[in-house]
Amino acid sequence: MKPSEDYSQNWKQETKENKAKQTAAQKKLDKVDKSGMKSMMSFFSPKQKS
Predict the structure, then answer these.
(1) 45: left (phi over 0), alpha (psi -120 to 50) or beta
(2) Between the CA of residue 44 and those of 9, 11, 17, 19, 47, what are the distances in Å?
(3) Could you tell me how far CA 22 lies from the centroid of its own chain?
(4) What is the pLDDT along the chain (50 residues), one digit of tens a residue?
(5) Is 28 exposed, middle or buried (0-12, 13-18, 19+ CB in 10 A)?
(6) pTM surpassing 0.70?
(7) Between vectors from CA 9 to CA 6 and to CA 10, what angle results, nearest 5°?
(8) Closest CA to 18 of 7, 34, 30
(9) What string of DSSP letters covers 1-50?
């Protein structure tokens, strides 16, 4: 079954527009090495039960 509409096609185009609207602090964050940092989604994902 295929979805009737594919919204992922315009996604890259929107990110180019958003990049132009970044604040100075957001531009500095883009240059920072984030390799050791947790992603924001890791804080909001459901906890694993052990």
Answers:
(1) beta
(2) 27, 23, 27, 25, 9
(3) 14
(4) 676 777 676 656 555 566 678 899 888 888 888 888 888 888 888 887 76
(5) exposed
(6) no
(7) 115
(8) 30
(9) ---S--GGGGHHHHHHHHHHT--HHHHHHHHS--TTSPPTHHHHSPPPP-
Per-residue model confidence (pLDDT) at position 40: 86
Query: What is the token pair recorded at 18?
Result: 């958003």
Type of residue found at 45: S
Residue with tokens 């929107």: 14
